[in-house]
Amino acid sequence: MIIAGIYSFNSGLEVIEQNFSDEFNQVKNVISRIDAKQHKTKISQEKTMAGRMLYKPSSLNTAYRQEFELMGWKKEKIYCEYPTRYYTDNYQPMTPERQPRPYREMDFVKGKVGVEVQFGKYAFMVYNVCAKMTIFHNQNIIDVGIEIVPIKEFADMMSTGVSYFEQFVWDLEHRGVANIDIPVLVLGLAE
């Protein structure tokens, strides 16, 4: 695959090139090693593209996970202790023993760089950059983030509803940078 678009959110590119060039080179290496054509395996059953061969996001995600793990990148979890003091008096929550332990997870972390690979719905891209990366920064796990997403042309060859680089960049530019945002590099991929 190739990097077809680069967007520097809150000076993401500058910070990464200056302080995390080794990690950035590894990310670029991983991207170049993925052969997208091997993941064009999904036969669409959607009305608007029935029978068409599409890229399978879960297969792409598996390929990225394998390549990142080969280079020593690891998933990182933060376990959550949800507050209970905001419940009303007439609500009784389940006891903690009956609930699965909640967590937040970053796809890949190495050397204070967090990477999220997102071939899914738009809300996940926004959540990754505007919430999750900030949380992981506040927990002293990452200093910068890299969000890997498809460009529109590539997303159009996946199921409907997959978001894309151009849409995400437009929204980030019109949202602006808040004082809690960390530097993030958004990479738009093509086959």
Provide an overview of this structure.
This protein is an alpha/beta fold. Helices cover 35% and strands 24% of the residues. It has helices at residues 12-19, 21-33, 57-70, 122-138, 152-155, 165-175, and strands at 2-9, 42-43, 53-54, 74-79, 103-110, 113-117, 144-150, 184-190. The strands form two sheets. It has a six-stranded mixed β-sheet, sandwiched between helices. A two-stranded antiparallel sheet has the order 2-3. The longest helix is centred in the C-terminal third of the chain and has 17 residues, at 122-138. The radius of gyration is 18 Å and the shape is globular. The mean pLDDT is 90.
Which labels suit this protein?
191 residues, single chain, globular, 35% helix, alpha/beta, two-stranded antiparallel sheet
Order of helices and strands: EHHEEHEEEHEHHE
- Tell me the number of helical segments per DSSP (H or I, 4 or more residues long): 6
**Ends apart, CA distance between termini:** 5 Å
Helix content: 25-40%
What is the total tally of β strands?
Answer: 8
Mean pLDDT equals 90
Sum up the overall morphology in one term.
Answer: globular
Structural class: alpha/beta
Cα-atom Rg, whole angstroms?
A: 18 Å
Approximately how much beta-strand content do the residues carry?
15-25%
Largest sheet: 6 strands, mixed
Strand order of the largest sheet: 1-8-7-6-5-4
Stretches where pLDDT is under 50 for at least 5 consecutive residues are none
Q: Brief overview, please?
A:
By secondary structure, the chain is an alpha/beta fold. Helices cover 35% and strands 24% of the residues.
